[in-house]
Each structure stands twice: as C-alpha cells, then as structure tokens.
Amino acid sequence: MTNEVIDICKRAAACAPRLAGLETRTKNGALLAMTEALLDSTEELTAANTGDRERAAAEGTAGTLLDRLTLDPSRLASMADGLRAVAAQDDPVGESVSEWKRPNGLVIEQVRAPLGVVAVIYEARPNVTSDVAGLCLKSGNATVLRGSSIALESNRAIVKVLREALGSAGVDPDALQLIPDAGREAALELMKAKGLVDLLVPRGGSALIASIEANATVPFIIDGDGNCHIYVDASADRNMATAIVINAKTQRPSVCNALETLVVHEGLVGQWLPPALDELSSRGVEIRGDERVVGVWPKATRAEEEDWSTEYLDLVLAVKVVGSFDDAVEHINTYGTANAEGIVTDDPSLARRFAAEIDAGSVFINASTRFSDGGEFGYGAEIGISTQKLHARGPMGLRALTSTKYIVWGDGHTRS
Amino acid sequence: MTNEVIDICKRAAACAPRLAGLETRTKNGALLAMTEALLDSTEELTAANTGDRERAAAEGTAGTLLDRLTLDPSRLASMADGLRAVAAQDDPVGESVSEWKRPNGLVIEQVRAPLGVVAVIYEARPNVTSDVAGLCLKSGNATVLRGSSIALESNRAIVKVLREALGSAGVDPDALQLIPDAGREAALELMKAKGLVDLLVPRGGSALIASIEANATVPFIIDGDGNCHIYVDASADRNMATAIVINAKTQRPSVCNALETLVVHEGLVGQWLPPALDELSSRGVEIRGDERVVGVWPKATRAEEEDWSTEYLDLVLAVKVVGSFDDAVEHINTYGTANAEGIVTDDPSLARRFAAEIDAGSVFINASTRFSDGGEFGYGAEIGISTQKLHARGPMGLRALTSTKYIVWGDGHTRS
Q: What ipTM describes this predicted complex?
C-alpha cells in the first residue's frame, strides 16, 4: 500500500516539469478533449456510478450521501461545463506579478509558476474529480486524487476517460493520478509524501482537517468551517436587509457560506426585526435570540453562549442585538471563522470600515454571503475556499494553484 | 514560562486589529521615530551589548559569533538606515491585487491585508530585532521576537528603545514584543501558539528548521539551504562568465546565495574552464571536479556523489561538465535546493527556457546569485528568503507579510 501511494506521487512529480512548460492552447485543447470525453462516455460512467450506488445502498448509506454520489447525464453535463469554464479562464502560468529595475540596472520580474503536484482528498461527489483535474491542468500542475471509498468505481471510470483524453490531446496522462485505495493508511501516506506533493487540499469535514493538521508533512491549505454573520446596520435599506438575510439563511442552509448568526443594530429591534423574523419563521427557520430578541419576538428560544459559535448548517438562526457598529465587529471577529461575513448598510464609509476591520476571507457589502464561492467569483470550477491566511484566502481560483518565481536579468552584474 | 509566552502572544494579537487600521503616515512616522531612537540611544545600546559580549566571551563563544553579536555605532547606523529604507517602501496594506465585475453586477476587489501576528525566531545578530520590527510595523502586523540567549540584553535594550519610540509616535507599544526567555521550552510554546501567531519565520540553521517542521502548529515559512548553481553555456561571454563565477563563489562564501556548484557546457572545457579555475584557485578556492574537469585541470580533486548536494559555505567549489542545456537543467533540478540558480548565456531564448524550467525561487540570467537578497531586490530590511513554494518564494518583501481579502460590493444581490 505504502509504496503504491508513493509511486503514484512520484509519477505525478516526474510529469510536473513538462506540465509547467505546456502552452496555453495545448492545455485548453486538452480541457476541451476532456469535456468531449465525459459527454461521449455517459453510459460507461453512469454504469460505474450505478455500481457504486448499489453497493452504498446495500451498506445502508444515507439518502443525502447517495444523492451526492449520483452521476447522471445532467450532472455529467455540468462537469463538462466546469471544464469548459476552466478552459475559458486566463492562464496564470507565466503571468507577471510585478517587474522593476534596480538602480544598478538589474531587471527583476516576478512571474507565476505552477506549484508542481497538487493532491486533493475529498468525499463522495464525483464532480470534484473532473473539477480538480481541470483546474490543476490549466494551472500547469500534476494532480493526485484520493476520493471516497463509496465513489471508487465512479472515480476510476472518470479518471480513465480523462487520462485517455489527455493522451489524445498530446498531454502526458500521468498528469492525472487516482489513488485506488480509499483506506486511512493511504490517506496518511499521501499527507506525508513530503518532497513529492507541493500542495494538499482536504475537502472534507473536521475529522479530515484534524488528521491533516496532526499528520501532514506536505504543505496544505485548509478549507474550514463557515460560521457566517450578516450585520444589519441602522442605516440599512429595510427591504434589502430582509431579502439578503432570507437568501443567506434559506437558499441552501447546508453549505459553508450560509448565514448562521444575524447581528442587528438596536435601532432596528422595534421596527424591522419582528417582521423579518416572521418571514424567516414562515420559511421554517428556527430563531435563537438574545434577551432583546426574545423581548420583541417571543417565539424565539433563548440563545445559549454556544449558539454564537455554532455552524448549524440547517434552518436555525442565532440573532444578536448590538448597540453599535463596533460591538458588531467585535462579536463577528470573536465568534466568526474568518470565512464570509456581510453587512447591510447605506453608508459607504461604514462599509469600508467593516471591510477593513472584519478579519475574514470575504466581506460582503449589501450582498448575500452565499456568493462566497469560486463559481460565483467567476473562477470556473472550484478547488475550495481557504480559511487560512497564508498563500490564499477565500475562494481559490487558478492563481491559488500557482507559486511565484523571480527572474533577474543582468548584463554581467556582480555584487560588491 | 508557558504562560509568559502565551501572554506575550495574546498581547500582540490584541494589538493586531488596531495596527491593521493604521494610516501609512502614522506607520512611517513611527519608523522614523524608531530610527531616531536607535541613534539617540547609542550609549545605552552598546553598553547592553558589551555585557552580552563579555558573558559570551567568558563562556568561550567563537570569534565569528561574537562578531555577529557586536553592536557598535556603525552597525546601529545601518539598523537605522534599514528602518528608513522600510519607511520609504510602498505600504502594501489596502493595495489592490485585482478587481473585476461579475455579469450580475457584483464588484469583487481583492486587497492586501496584514497577516496579524508575525513571530521570528533568530540567532545572535541584534540587527534582526530592528529589521523585523520595522518590516512588521510597515505591513500592519504585530511582532513577537524570540532571539538568541547570548543577545538577550542587547535585544531587551533595543526593544525597550523601539517600544518607547512607537508610543511617542502614537502606535501601541504592544505592537512589538520580545520573549525574554531564550530557552528551548519557550521556543516550543511559540511554535505551538496556534490561533495567536499567524506566521512564524525561523531564521536559523537546520536544527531550528527541523524543530519547526516537527513541532509547529502555527503557519510558518522556511528560509532554508542554498545549494546554488551557475550554468555556463557554450554561448556565454567568456569574460562575463569568469567574473560572475568568481563573484558568486568568493565575494562572501558563507551565505546561502553563494555559488556551490559550477555547471559547464562541454564546449568550454578545453578553452574557458582551465583559466577560470586558475583564477578561482588563485583566490583560494578548492576545486572538486568530475572526471573531465580533472582531465583538463589536474589540480582539482575528484568530486564524490555527495559533493553535488553539499552546501559548502566555504571556499570550495564543485564543478560538473554537461553535454547539453537539458543535462544542466536536470543536474540543477536534481541537486539544487530551489533557492537561487544562475545561467550565463548570450542566447535570450535559452535564458527564457532556463527561467521556466529551473525550479527555484530566483533565477539569475548573466548575474551573480549573490543578488538573491531582500536588500538587493530593493525590499529595504530583510525578513528572509523563502525556500518553499506556498505563499512566498525567494526574497521576501513587505507583501510576503500580508494576506489578501475579498471585498464584494452588491446592491441587494441574492443568489438564486
């Protein structure tokens, strides 16, 4: 087992220098070939997926997980769309970050270069397989995938089809590797493949993240929790505030950019808050409020301290009343997870202060936190949302899969 | 002990949000106050340093280390110059990385923001104390310093003077913290201050780096080895090649950007190589060459396999003959440490290929690798040279001490 994971990483690493030198048109040609290949292989891919789902159902897998696992013609079409969107993105490799000339005449260029080998550990969704393969190829990186055991045959089939497409487009198929062992040991080997893996992105729950933090010796980026807030200031447009809060809480409550705590300026407690909570309640949202919330809207249950730090991922909303903008910022910076935080206000200077003082990957002014997403940012397919500060923060686009390199041009320069 | 380190980190973290909001002119005012304070406190600082040196000498500390430890009026003047140079740098905080509008009208800005708390573990040089304090202040970060035990009184005195200067310039002195315990336990506490330290930069030898890699739970950037190469292509200007190789090897052999292995195209073995090696030898450089080198220049000793991966940091040079450009790239990518690598060539397309194919933080075309340095890049004082690929690679300027943040401007946008 051990040797298999290392051998896979070595094949990817051996391929990486050639990928770094690929021309944009070659990469885009390969992405379009991958698109075609997915669409042309619908039967083969859905058959493999049916096998996975039957095995999972026989083992008593929950319905929501079976739904995530499902690959049907419409989902294959979205996967193909994702690859097309990646082909349409600008190529980050070779992009100039900055360039300057020193007084001694040296010209220094800082340019983007691929990381090398990018590995992703992920759960049941088979679309991640093609999304990651596409993003890594476009950014000039080799890919090592380690999916969930319940999706193993689906992933094998997708990777086989995509590797054939790479080969047909003149790209070494070793650019895309799947670890065919979904056991815990194989994941640990991957986390410890120092020198072979340049970036590991875990896409999974807190147990996976804890394991990475405890065991990984390779560089990684954490895609962590989202205890997201929206602060409705006294200056807010009332209707806009209601619409944004309802959207952020109810449009898809199970995801990391959904709203978890509403923070309200006390000036709105008498007028705006009760009808807004009525609206939320009518959509099935349970309200847990502080004393003042319960005072004006008695259907609310009283929030406990732990509610402020809970990511419900469900139709539950904590509601906190604050006396000032500063108190709102303090509450959010204390309990937030630095993922996506929003403000509704008509005051641009307050919006600027919120953007500067809130410590988060993305700050939303008069917009739903649900837009914290690679696709919504225009990044094509999604590699994840970084909740750390080093390297990349917030939704990660192709640039997040690159490093930089200095190229220094001299004319016989020596240092004195 | 444990609580002391954590308390220090907490004071820095509590200060960080205010530092993030400081205006550029306030930060520059504080940097100039720090400059003045260093120059005005020459007596106090050199007296503290004399105490450190006397204790170190009594303990039998080596002369080179005593020299590094020394603080005299001329070194204080360079420290003051370093702070002035940082004041002259552009403020990275709030700098726009990119900005675009989505088809739905959302405007997305990506701006630079401070990391928060930056900690540095370093060795005897007291100039690092003011360099790091200045760079962190300008980039809006709080600083936690942990210097060497032999420099403890010097560091205490410098930090006291700089904190007073911060206070006089309207900046919270808690922005600058020194851990007054130079023991191993205190360093371990700092490495594990997760959630309080946003970036740890170790400036030390391989034992410190190994300890960070084994123990750190806070994010860190490695400033690692430099097994640097220069490839002299057949197309090189002969005199330029000689001058660059001599400079890179002999100008300061003990540092990480000094040349360690010369890679020579076989076309130069008969003509250029022997006189170049004569020149090096006349400057006291010992030559360890492969078979072909020894064949044309018999004074060379025969290089062993381990010579190709040794960072001598001394007047010793390994010399390798290659049959082609591709062989040179392969040798360098195999044995290099991805720090600084150079080529001497008259062919711009070969230079471009070298820049693209060599996996290193900095690539030098017709220039000495000795320019791989924050000061030489124009970054003012130096925080270090990253030998990793995530976040920052190569010499680190102020931008390397920032993260980015997305600010998304809507007009009531909700997601459907």
A: 0.92
